[in-house]
What does this fold into?
Amino acid sequence: MKRKAVILGVSLGILAVGVVLAYLIHKGLRIPCLFHRVTGLLCPGCGNTRATMALLRLDIKAMLGYNLTYPLQIFYVARLYFVCAKNYIQGGRFAYRAKPDWVDISCLAIILIWAIIRNLL
It folds into this structure.
């Protein structure tokens, strides 16, 4: 039961940080992409801040325009978090501890391929 409470607390903390960041971004905070500044290329996450703000406005077209793989990235990060949380509740370690499966490989391959394609277009 204690581990479930810890996961609940961590989850609420992540949510609170997300709400504060969304507010600060809405008020003008800009998060620069260091990868883009150094290389001049778009990283797989470039556009995610703007995509998040578009999603909060329920502007799906704009969200996908900023980063086409953003929904997939949200899914994959959430999946990783839930697997780690489950492992913590069951075994006491907040770790992925799984061999890559078809979901891992597919998600990461799609995100990487999109990052390459968007820099060539």
